[in-house]
Amino acid sequence: MPGTSPAQLTLALYQPDIPQNAGTILRMCACLGFGAAIIEPAGFPVSDRHFRRAGMDYLDHVAIARHASFSAFDAWRRREGARLILLSTKASLAYTEFRFEAGDILLLGRESAGAPEEVHQTADARLLIPLQNSMRSLNVAVAAAMVAGEAARQIQIARLADANIAERG
Ligand SMILES: C[S@@+](CC[C@H](N)C(=O)[O-])C[C@H]1O[C@@H](n2cnc3c(N)ncnc32)[C@H](O)[C@@H]1O
After folding, report:
1. Residue 61 lies in a domain
2. What's the pLDDT tens digit per position in 4-61?
3. 4 occurs within a structural domain
4. What beta strand segments (E) does the chain contain?
5. tRNA/rRNA methyltransferase SpoU type domain spans which residues (predicted)?
6. ipTM value for the complex
7. Fewest CB atoms less than 10 Å from the CB: which of 21, 59, 118, 147?
């Protein structure tokens, strides 16, 4: 929620327009303990039956922070000191080459149009999932799962390394 600290990892959706995808991503957030944010305007209400069907009862287990605009969202995440990591088909850095940190926010663009230039300029990093030549993009929920999985893996490894160092004194 706005005003609370980000989870180890937060997934943010920029003006999502396909309710089934948003429901799928939020279900993943519930299952894996990620924070979730929606930057309005979304192309559907939270009562949308496709959204509810994709998210099922898992939606009751995730706190969805709804931000009225990108600037409101960005002000919140700056207050929290969280990095903004944009996933984009226009990026050049492969997500596997990036060092994720606890507290990072992974931002997904709109299904129809990605994210606008203002968002690209604001992001601390822009990451690409490299695709085969001539393939345009992945489904947003698939892209979210791939990069969140890698980020969670890295954060867990870093946590284990810190614990080992502390144990050895
Ligand atoms: C269907 S894609 C958007 C397609 C849009 N025409 C574009 O080129 O930005 C929806 C979102 O999924 C994510 N995405 C999909 N494929 C990706 C890729 N290969 N690398 C990084 N992000 C990707 C991005 O966040 C993107 O904004």
Report:
1. yes
2. 334 699 999 999 999 999 999 999 999 999 999 999 999 888 888 999 999 999 999 9
3. no
4. 9-14, 35-39, 64-67, 84-87, 93-94, 104-108, 125-128
5. 9-147
6. 0.98
7. 118
